[in-house]
Amino acid sequence: MQEMKEIQIEKIVVNAGAGEVGDEVEKSVRLLEKLTGKQPVKTESRREAKTFGLRGGLEIGVKITLRGEEAREFLEKVLPAADNEIDASSFDGNGNFAFGISEYIDVPGVDYDGDIGMRGFEVVVNLERPGYRVKRRDYKPSEVGKDHEVSDEEAKEFVEEELGAEVTN
Fold first, then answer.
1. How confident is the model at residue 86 (pLDDT cuts 50, 70, 90)?
2. Which site in 15, 42, 55, 154 is 20 to 30 Å from 124, CA atoms measured?
3. Whole-model pTM above 0.85?
4. CA-based max dimension of the chain
């Protein structure tokens, strides 16, 4: 395969929604610190949702972005918790996919922590080819060509061959 056509993991975003303000957010922070060894960022609600008791600007979740080798290592660590299976509907058409882990103790090597309790998290994986930087650069950004974008089929093939996971229907 040509070097510029190789698919790679650009980033992984790990989300843990707390659902409420306060202590639940701190538990989610401890969870992501335990899983990744990094300091997560708190996310805020954007708008008001009175049925859920939310106002804009309240901290209701946490996230962390992993790149490079640590992203791949984290993905290989958490895939067994999802039974090494990713649903075909989890792919978005642009080479990205997401899956959820309902309980963090399903991740091999992670023990239960009473301070955190039982909670889950979501993993969002962004796949790209070299050259995608032209889309994000400040000076003269441009589009990535259609034949260079990562299709769902290519992303599914990458997941099965490179990560050893099965894509199910």
1. very high
2. 55
3. yes
4. 53
Alpha carbons 116 and 52: distance in angstroms, whole number:
22
Pairing of strands 8-17, 121-128: antiparallel
Q: How far is CA 148 from CA 5, 64, 88, 116, 142, in A?
A: 7, 28, 21, 43, 13
When pLDDT is averaged across residues 96-110 and rounded to a whole number, the result is: 94
**Structure token digits, residue 63:** 């996230």
The answer to whether residue 44 scores a pLDDT higher than 90 is no
Answer whether 107's CB lies under 8 Å from 35's CB.
Answer: yes
Domain range annotation of the chain: 3-168
Identify the helix (H) or strand (E) that includes residue 98: strand 96-101
> Quick one: which of 22, 20, 25 has its CA closest to 53?
20
Q: Are strands 85-87 and 166-168 parallel, antiparallel or unpaired?
A: parallel
